[in-house]
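Contributing new records

If you add data, match the layout below exactly. Sequence lines come first and carry their own label; structure lines follow with theirs. Keep one chain per record. Anything else will be rejected by the validation script.
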Amino acid sequence: NINRGFGISYLNDTSYKVNKNENDKHIKDNNIKCHSIGDYKLYKGLILRCRKYFIKRGIKFFTNYIYIVDKIKKEINEIELYDPLTPEKHFNIHFDDITNFSYNMAGTCHSCQGLTKKGDITIYDTYLHFINREWFYTAITRTDDLNKIFIYTKQ
């Protein structure tokens, strides 16, 4: 139960667990009314990251792009999203398409390459035997302030 900003992991499974735990904690701490769709708990304002490129209804969704939940339309099994860069443009996805997205509280180091995160970051999976200097360097350089890095050691 760590809350030190954005999480960076080696394993997808770790990223998934951190995302789920942080989202559940955020919902509980802020008493947010959410809608459960499969394994996802969604609410207005939730930031989602697209996990893989796909096209739906002529709209292209790009890997690692951020989308924000505006409405959950249970009566028609759709979620209304918008891109924060163009908030005036809204589009709907079917509930089945939610698996193309993840919460945006953590990600793998590979998917975070090229990004600079503001605020704290926590680095996970450093105990794995296949972590090398290059991976660790990439992880710690996701911030411009080394004082904002925390390492989760699993102890």
